[in-house]
Design a protein that fits this description.
Strand content of chain A: 15-25%
Distance between the termini of chain A: 53 Å
Shape of chain B: elongated
Radius of gyration of chain A: 22 Å
Strand order of the largest sheet of chain A: 8-1-10-9
Order of helices and strands of chain B: HHHHHHHHHHHH
Number of strands of chain B: 0
Number of strands of chain A: 10
Radius of gyration of chain B: 28 Å
Helix content of chain B: 55-70%
Helix content of chain A: 25-40%
Number of domains of chain A: 2
Number of helices of chain A: 7
Largest sheet of chain A: 4 strands, mixed
Order of helices and strands of chain A: HEHEEHEEEEHHEHEEH
Largest sheet of chain B: none
Shape of chain A: elongated
Low-confidence stretches of chain B: 1-5, 38-44
Structural class of chain B: mainly alpha
CATH architecture of the largest domain in chain A: 2-Layer Sandwich
Mean pLDDT of chain A: 90
Largest interface: A-B, 82 and 87 residues
Strand content of chain B: under 5%
Distance between the termini of chain B: 59 Å
Number of domains of chain B: 2
Oligomer: heterodimer
Chain lengths: 269, 344
């Protein structure tokens, strides 16, 4: 599996910690991302899903603020008990430790950068679309007009010159934190303890390290069940199915070869 | 446009009942202080809620496959071409059926030409097909497939070309070269006939990866029956073809039974809705129907047998094509199902 581990690369590896307990749903990250990366407009249709008209991350949306409106529950977001609970969380490419899209890419267009991020080189991508069906988080998408696949670049251009990604730069509450991976993992743990000690017992860290994804370079602190944020409990990279698939392929090849040998032997008079 | 000149439609029964309904709503509001009726709920209610049970408003997590109409016929043409290459070599060296071996070369070359065009035209940037040749990645079935296609395509095209040349020139070195290229194309044909099962099986789409252990065999057998059927429709009557058709249709019948008897929720797109209907029609046409026809053909007289085999061949080709369409369609339905990826 393609891992970034190794002490030398580790010191350079950067990460996002998105803390939904600090998110105010202002969408500054969405706007900053679109402006910096020159992405096309979208999210202008009424979904009826709270204040979220963006829908999901995709080829022209690399940051997406989720508006998680739940059943009435006292205390969440400071609401009165008879009102709906309301949480916000800014979604982004997870830059997986073992990235399904990177493994699936047949052209080598998707690479691991020196910062540990997963980057689609637009000048190499040929639009085969295989990364789209290989991402367990439904992040990468083919742009139907352009034909190539696009997703969050982790602001590779900005990181190159020592700047933090545009979304983190624009976030007014430091809900989006950017920093070194190992340090941010500590920050996340400390923050979680603090939240728990304050009585926010339902706060948890979403970073599926025990699945084949092997942990994220963009992890999240959310309140309540991560599933209501569309964060899957068991994300798996498709390469876990390769062994079973190629074994079956060998069986099929054997059936074809030996089947025809026997059939033609039988037809010989 | 003015409506003044038009005659207003006469009030009928439905208008009266709608008017009465308004009064009913008013009475209910006066007595209960609230209305419990569908007619006055705001559009879109019940109010959308994000929860572990409803996910994120039921917005699908996964993206749908971006592939266009070219992919099912690509799977079909590739499966038939790969199988034909293998059949050709076996027919030549075991059954000494040179006519069959020659046509196998042609089918393999034609299939490869069709599939190359289909695959390249499906790329978002067709002009960049050569980017596939930058790297070889064993972990990417798309990369393995592209290289197999390139390899298989070149050698099967060369074999067909050498066949034509040899017929005109009758030269021994050309014939030997022909055997060599034919052999290599058969070797590449073994994975090429079924790798598409791995290609879609090793993805995050639930209905596909759930079946990764059977898809390559399913697609491989589907490719074999279409190759056999094409060769029969070209006029070949070697009884080995019918025997292979019986075997492959039997395995396809078994696959259909497996799908029908499975109760896994991720299999649902293969049983319900449009994709389910296409799966069933495709399954019948490439499984039990040709199986029965071919068994009947094996035990009946020459004239009748010929007709039965032709019928089985047509049924198998249509069924095999529909099967690929069904699986692609099922993938779309499966990716749209927000429940599956959120299951614990």
């Amino acid at each position: 599996m393609e891992r970034t581990s190794g002490a030398a690369s580790m010191s350079q590896t950067t990460a996002f910690l998105t803390d939904s307990t600090l998110c105010i749903g202002c969408k500054a990250c969405e706007v900053a991302c679109k402006e910096w990366n020159g992405l096309a407009e979208d999210g202008l249709t009424w979904t009826g899903n709270s204040y979220d008209n963006t829908g999901a991350v995709g080829h022209s949306t690399w940051r997406h603020v989720k508006f998680v409106e739940g059943f009435p529950e006292p205390g969440l977001g400071g609401n009165a008990s008879e009102q709906s609970s309301w949480g916000f969380s800014s979604d982004v490419c997870k830059h997986c430790e073992v990235a399904g899209c990177l493994e699936a890419c047949p052209t080598g267009a998707i690479v691991r950068t020196e910062f540990g991020g997963v980057f689609v080189q637009p000048d190499v991508c040929n639009g085969c679309g295989y990364c789209v069906v290989s991402c367990p988080f439904g992040v990468v998408q083919r742009n139907p007009e352009d034909g190539r696949a696009f997703k969050c670049t982790f602001c590779y251009d900005r990181q190159k010159v020592g700047l933090q990604p545009a979304c983190a730069q624009a976030c007014p509450t430091e809900s989006i934190k950017f920093g070194k991976l190992d340090k941010l993992q500590l920050v996340a743990r400390e923050r979680l303890e603090k939240l728990h000690s304050r009585g926010m017992k339902d706060a948890e860290l979403y970073d599926p390290t025990d699945t084949s994804v092997g942990g994220l370079h963009a992890f999240f602190i959310v309140r309540g069940d991560p599933r209501q944020y569309n964060l899957p409990p068991n994300p798996e990279v498709p390469s876990t199915y390769l062994k079973a698939g190629w074994t079956a392929s060998a069986v099929a090849a054997g059936l074809l070869l030996f089947g025809s040998v026997f059939a033609f032997l039988g037809s010989r008079k | 446009m003015s409506t003044e000149g038009r005659k207003r439609p006469a009030r009928d029964e439905s208008d009266v009942s709608r008017e009465n309904r308004l009064l009913e709503i008013r009475r209910e509001a006066e007595t209960k202080g609230r209305i419990e009726a569908i007619g006055v709920r705001p559009v879109g209610s019940p109010f959308p809620v994000a929860s572990p049970e409803t996910g994120y408003y039921g917005v699908p997590l996964l993206k749908q496959p971006p592939w266009t109409w070219q992919i099912p016929p690509y799977f079909f043409a590739g499966g038939a071409a790969g199988s034909a290459a293998v059949l050709g070599v076996v027919a030549r060296w075991i059954a000494q059926d040179r006519e069959l071996a020659r046509d196998c070369r042609y089918v393999a070359a034609a299939g490869t030409a069709v599939s190359s065009v289909l695959l390249i035209s499906d790329l978002g940037r067709p002009s960049r097909f050569l980017a596939m040749m930058r790297v070889f990645k064993l972990r990417s079935p798309m990369s393995v497939g592209a290289w197999t296609l390139a390899f298989f395509g070149s050698f099967s095209a060369a074999a067909a070309f050498l066949e034509i040349l040899d017929r005109r020139l009758r030269s021994v070195p050309l014939r030997v070269l022909g055997y060599l290229t034919e052999g290599i194309s058969a070797l590449a044909g073994l994975p090429f006939s079924n790798y598409t099962g791995v290609l879609i099986g090793a993805t995050v789409v639930p209905v596909w990866n759930e079946n990764v252990q059977t898809l390559p065999i399913h697609f491989g057998m589907s490719g074999l029956i279409s190759a056999v059927s094409i060769l029969e429709l070209m006029g070949h009557e070697n009884s080995a073809l019918n025997a292979l058709g019986i075997g492959a249709s039997a395995i396809e019948t078994l696959e259909g039974y497996n799908i029908e008897s499975s109760r896994k929720p991720s299999i649902a797109p293969l049983k319900h809705g449009t994709s389910g209907l296409i799966t069933r029609i495709g399954g019948m046409l490439s499984g039990p129907i040709p199986l029965a026809l071919r068994i009947a053909a094996a035990v009946s007289g020459t004239q009748r047998s010929r007709k039965l085999r032709k019928a089985a061949a047509v049924s198998s080709i249509v069924g095999s094509m529909l099967t690929r369409v069904a699986w692609l369609q099922a993938g779309h339905v499966s990716a749209k199902d927000w429940r599956l990826p959120l299951e614990p």
